[in-house]
Amino acid sequence: MAKALSLLKAYHTSSIPSNGGFIVTAYFEGGTNYSVYEVTAYQNVKDIYQVPEGMIFKTDGNRTHMLIEPPSYAQKHIEPVNREQGKSIPYRFNEMNLIKLRNQVNVMIPKEPIMLYSSFTILKNRGDSFSFVFHLTEDVYLAMKKFISDSLYNDCSFGKTDAMTCAKTVLETIKKFSIWKA
User: Fold this and answer.
1) How many Å apart are CA 67 and CA 40, to the nearest integer?
2) Which residues lie across from 47 on neighbouring strands?
3) Contact (Cβ atoms closer than 8 angstroms) between residue 151 and residue 145
4) DSSP string, the chain
5) Between β-strands 96-100 and 106-110, what pairing exists: parallel, antiparallel or unpaired?
6) Tell me, what's the pLDDT at 182?
7) How distant is the alpha carbon of residue 169 from its chain centre?
8) 25/129 Cα distance (integer angstroms)
9) Whole-prediction pTM value?
10) CA distance 51 to 154
11) How many whole angstroms separate alpha carbon 179 and alpha carbon 182?
């Protein structure tokens, strides 16, 4: 089965696949359950280097997100694209699947991915945040679905069923990535 490798460790050991892969990143807001997941696909990397903000990949890519909003979030009426830095994703409500969990947590998953042209940045991890890279293998989609489901269960306190539902929904968007169809 495909394995996740810490992005920073992969960078330092020169094991980030240059021919393509997936990067799953999660940013957790300390003291709340507000979280943002990013899944980025890329291929044919020209260069990768670190900057103070994170890691820059010189290549095209696709990206999708998953926003997890606790019921106590006071700004839930603001479109995700217009929220403050660290809490925003580049989508409006009508561009996303909205899932309300049994515990009233809102999960927002875009229906379509976005295209990233010429370069993209994976922000530096802060707090409990993480970034993992997945190599392209035959079972990479299954591995990412399990990884995301396990993260939602362990890191966001989702029930097993809710975690699997959200992971399946984000995988539907991931499978629409066009980077592999060039």
Assistant:
1) 15
2) 58
3) no
4) ---EEEHHHHHHTT-S-TT-EEEEEEEE-TTS--EEEEEEEE-S-SEEEEETTEEEEES-EEEEEEEEE-TT-TTTTS-GGGSPTTS--S--GGGEEEEE-TTS-EEEEESS-EEE-S-EEEEPP-TT-EEEEEE--TTHHHHHHHHHHHHHHHHS---HHHHHHHHHHHHHHHTT--GGG-
5) antiparallel
6) 54
7) 13
8) 7
9) 0.93
10) 30
11) 6
Give residue 50's Cα distance to chain centre: 19
CB 95, CB 152: distance < 8 Å: no
44 touches 57 (CB < 8 A): no
**Tens digit of each residue's pLDDT (9 = 90 or more) over 38-83:** 999 999 899 999 999 899 999 999 999 999 999 999 999 999 999 9
Token duo for residue 182: 């060039």
Pairing of strands 21-28, 4-6: unpaired
Instruction: Indicate the residue type of 28.
Output: F
